[in-house]
Write a structure and sequence with these properties.
Blueprint lengths: L1 E9 L4 H13 L4 E6 L3 E3 L9 E10 L3 H14 L14 E7 L4 E2 L4 E2 L8 H10 L4 E2 L2 E2 H6 L6 E3 L3
Antiparallel strand pairs: 1-4, 1-5, 2-4, 3-4, 3-10, 6-7, 8-9
């Protein structure tokens, strides 16, 4: 089993309800176990347009190899109506494989750890809720969070 972290986000439809459903659906995928989710956060789009996002991070244990896990995530996105009409378009669901154990991978379909996660408050704050001692690119999560104060984000109650 490998511990993987998945970024979840949505800004079309009932985003919070979508993320709750997807967390249950992740648990039901063969080869995935022990799904734990951070609290939900609301944030403005970064390098994108559209309504605010609801974001979270899930920690899960898996026996699926990284590309098979990516395929499973993309299948979930498709089932939830994810369209890609242009780069950073608003979306019903966005699932990003952030980290897969200590694996470093530079594949045409997947780079691990996620190359921009240290630049995104909507990833770092929920990730810190699950793995407060994690380092990202050699620095503690808190240092990265302190470096991006211009990204408004709020924890959603409940």
């Amino acid at each position: 089993m490998v511990r993987a972290y998945i970024g979840l986000g949505a800004n079309l439809g009932d985003s919070a309800a979508t993320l709750r459903r997807v967390l249950a659906e992740l648990q039901a995928i063969d080869g995935i176990a022990a799904v734990t989710a951070s609290p939900f956060y609301r944030s403005a789009p970064v390098d994108a347009t559209g309504p605010d996002f609801v974001n979270a991070v899930a920690a899960l244990d898996t026996v699926l190899p990284p590309l098979a896990l990516l395929d499973a995530l993309q299948a979930l996105e498709n089932r939830h109506g994810r369209l890609r009409p242009y780069k950073n378009a608003p979306r019903t669901l966005d699932l990003d494989l952030l980290a897969y154990g200590d694996t470093q991978l530079d594949h045409e379909r997947l780079i691990l750890p996620h190359p921009r996660m240290h630049l995104r408050a909507f990833v770092l704050l929920p990730l810190r809720d699950l793995a407060p001692d994690m380092t990202v690119q050699g620095k503690p999560i808190g240092e990265w969070i302190d470096a991006i104060p211009d990204q408004p984000i709020e924890r959603i109650a409940g």
